[in-house]
C-alpha cells in the first residue's frame, strides 16, 4: 500500500515493522494509534489554513 499511494501515513507504532516493509510510509506520526491519526489530521488542516 505504501508503495502504491503517494501520500501515506503510518502511526508511530509502525516503526517496529519498518524493516519488514518494502516501502515505508511517506509520513510517520509521533503518536501511536488514534493519537497519531489525530496528529496527521491536524497537520492537514493546518496546511490548508495557510
Summed over residues and divided by their number, the pLDDT gives a mean of 93
Proportion of helical residues: 25-40%
Q: Give the SSE string.
A: EEH
The portion of residues forming beta strands comes to 5-15%
Principal-axes geometry comes out as flat
* Oligomeric state of the chains present here: single chain
Report how far the terminal alpha carbons are from each other. Answer: 29 Å
Low-confidence stretches: none
Number of helices: 1
Indicate the radius of gyration in whole angstroms.
12 Å
Structural class: mainly alpha
Strand order in the sheet with the most strands: 1-2
**Biggest beta sheet summary:** 2 strands, parallel
- Strands, total number: 2
Any chance you could write out the topology, listing elements then pairs?
Elements lengths: L8 E2 L16 E2 L4 H17 L1
3D architecture notes:
This protein has one helix spanning 33-49; strands at 9-10, 27-28. It contains one helix and two strands, in the order ββα.
Task: Briefly summarize what is shown.
The chain has 50 residues and is mainly alpha-helical.
